[in-house]
Amino acid sequence: MPYPQLRLNLDALDNNIRVMAAWCRDRQVDLAPHVKTTMSAPIITRQLAAGAVGVTVATVDQVATALGWGHQQVLIANEVVDRDGLIRLRSWLEEDPAREIRCFVDSAAGITAAAQVFAGEAGAPLEVLLDVGPRAGARECAASTTLSALPNWSAPRPA
Question: What is the DSSP code (8-state) at residue 101?
């Protein structure tokens, strides 16, 4: 067989999936596993069957892959600031109103870029999560107050 190959111990994989699912259920936490490493539809199917609510990816291209596999709940674990990527997100959200695509924002530039593409009354909104922490542009909670006060920011819709 040509390389690269991935060989898994399915018993160990299924056990890990069960343990993680139980840990999340016990803590009443929703799990959307980050699939960027495996990008494996069969593994994602196992995780969803065990209770995961969606998938997490790293890029807009990975969103396309997840949507192609039929997944409707996708979180992008990064800020999307490029116009073409944001336009793709908007088109996917408008194409199917049941779809839930979210991403992180951690800067005024990110909020402004998304607001420019998602402006207007028509079309689905882009739901964003404010990313605060050492790897984010907003490194402290005080920065989140500044970002949430921007004119393009709107409060999250009630669950």
Answer: E
Rg of the chain over CA atoms, in angstroms?
Answer: 17
pTM for the structure as a whole: 0.81
Name residues whose C-beta falls within 8 Å of residue 73's C-beta, 6 or more positions apart in sequence. Answer: 32, 53, 54, 55, 99, 100
- Output the six-digit token pair for 88: 């793709």
Q: Do 103 and 80 contact (CB within 8 A), yes or no? A: yes
Per residue in 71-129, pLDDT (tens digit) is 999 999 988 999 999 999 999 999 998 999 999 887 778 888 888 888 876 667 888 88
- Matching residue, tokens 């790293």: 58
- Cα–Cα distance, 65 to 150 (Å, whole number): 33
